From TrEMBL:
One GO process term, biological-process aspect: tRNA methylation
Species the sequence originates in: Pseudomonas mangiferae
Family the entry assigns: Belongs to the class I-like SAM-binding methyltransferase superfamily. RNA M5U methyltransferase family. TrmA subfamily.
Descriptive protein name: tRNA/tmRNA (uracil-C(5))-methyltransferase
One of the Pfam families matching this protein, by short name: tRNA_U5-meth_tr
Catalyzed reaction equations: uridine(54) in tRNA + S-adenosyl-L-methionine = 5-methyluridine(54) in tRNA + S-adenosyl-L-homocysteine + H(+); uridine(341) in tmRNA + S-adenosyl-L-methionine = 5-methyluridine(341) in tmRNA + S-adenosyl-L-homocysteine + H(+)
Enzyme class: transferase
InterPro entries reported for this sequence: MeTrfase_TrmA_AS, MeTrfase_TrmA_CS, SAM-dependent_MTases_sf, TrmA_MeTrfase, U5_MeTrfase_fam
EC number(s) recorded for this UniProt protein: 2.1.1.35
A GO CC term assigned to this protein in UniProt: cytosol
PANTHER family listed in its UniProt record: TRNA/TMRNA (URACIL-C(5))-METHYLTRANSFERASE, TRNA_TMRNA (URACIL-C(5))-METHYLTRANSFERASE
SUPFAM superfamilies on file: S-adenosyl-L-methionine-dependent methyltransferases (SSF53335)
The encoding gene: trmA
Function: Dual-specificity methyltransferase that catalyzes the formation of 5-methyluridine at position 54 (m5U54) in all tRNAs, and that of position 341 (m5U341) in tmRNA (transfer-mRNA).
Keyword Repeat carried by entry: no
Length: 362
């Protein structure tokens, strides 16, 4: 993870560059002007990962410029990270400095926090973790008020919980999420909340069913399920599926069927290429799908999934890579048109951007 070039005075200019870039990429599809959702200028990132650099008897938080793994940038704080991370950084450092059991062959520290104030720290080691380590780690976790995970080859020791708890207010309702250690979560909590509200508004109130691909821990699933009759959601990651099922139960959302399949596998099932045991008892033909919701990885949707998307009257697409979004839209443009467009500045001070489009059948 390279350190962003952090200068809040440049924020407006860098955001305008992203708007221009998104307009250019999507121009062939004649979208409306993008709705633009800004990020906080600082303390917006809810997770951070640091290598530890040793000088003498002291270890420092370190990052490296892209392509240079030998020249560390030593850090005492990290302004783009949440206030909670910045509060924990010096206290965690003091904890490992004071304890040989915690500092011996420690090489990485990771932080996962939430807008709700929860925090989890992961410490990674190049040696087995023993009883002395666990006693010291338990004391440190209690002192910091966090959950703590120790990782070494073949070991994963959890002190407290292996997830954090988030609470997001969307359209007048609070949704609560378990976000597991090591699984994907949206890094910018405030922008994520804006993204959820936009997706909910774009979907509208529906009387039909929703199919969701790449549902993760249910980040979008929970609010979107309140606007449709039923949801069929898919996700391939076991950790994310487990978290999503817990989140559905915790929020009392009972109109979602979640299946651990990839988008490609579900496409095969719908095309009756081959059956899947995980779909046993699910009547796919009984759904009346009106909208497909997708939030794919950076590679975007594969060709077959794009062909599947053509079947839906409406496609709600959240993208973390505008280039692959544009490539997917090129495949869909003869059957669908873009009726809404948005830019979500999840990653200030970098070239990365999150965007969203709503497509309707021509």
């Amino acid at each position: 993870m390279s350190r962003p070039s952090f200068d809040p005075s440049t924020y407006a200019a860098q955001l305008e560059e992203k708007v221009t870039r998104l307009r250019e990429l999507l121009a062939p599809f004649q979208p409306p002007a993008p709705e633009v959702f800004e990020s906080p200028r600082e303390h917006y990132r809810l997770r951070a990962e640091f290598r530890l650099w040793r000088e003498g008897e002291e270890r420092f938080y370190a990052m490296f410029a892209a392509g240079d793994k030998h020249t560390p940038i030593l850090l005492e704080d990290f302004p783009v990270a949440s206030q909670r991370i910045n509060q924990l950084m010096p206290r965690l450092k003091a904890g490992w400095q004071a304890s040989p059991a915690l500092s011996f062959k420690l090489f990485q520290a990771e932080f996962l926090t939430t807008l709700a104030g929860d925090a989890l720290v992961t410490l990674a080691y190049h040696r087995p973790l023993d009883a002395d380590w666990q006693r010291a780690a338990e004391a440190l976790a209690a002192d910091l008020g966090v959950s703590l995970v120790g990782r070494a080859r073949g070991q994963r020791i959890v002190i407290g919980r292996d997830y954090v708890e988030e609470a997001l207010d969307v359209a007048g309702r609070t949704f609560r999420y378990r976000q597991p250690e090591g699984a994907f979560t949206q890094p910018n909590g405030e922008v994520n909340r804006k993204m959820l509200a936009w997706a909910l508004d774009a979907l509208g109130q529906r009387q039909d069913d929703l199919m969701e691909l790449y549902c993760g821990n249910g980040n979008f699933t929970l609010p979107l399920a309140t606007r449709v009759r039923r949801v069929l959601a898919t996700e391939i990651s076991k950790a994310s599926v487990s978290a999503a099922l817990a989140n559905l139960a915790d929020n009392g959302v009972d109109n979602v069927t979640l299946v651990r399949l990839s988008a490609e596998e579900l496409t095969q099932a719908l095309n009756e290429v081959r059956p899947f045991r995980r779909l046993a008892g699910i009547d796919l033909k009984g759904y009346a799908f009106g909208t497909l919701f997708v939030d794919p990885p950076r590679a975007g949707m594969d060709t077959d999934t794009c062909e599947l998307a053509r079947r839906f009257p409406r496609i709600l697409y959240i993208s973390c890579n505008p280039e692959t979004l544009a490539a997917n839209l090129a495949q869909l443009q003869d059957t669908h048109r873009v009726v809404r467009c948005a830019l979500f500045d999840q990653f200030p001070y970098t070239h990365h951007m999150e965007s969203g489009v709503l497509l309707e059948r021509r």
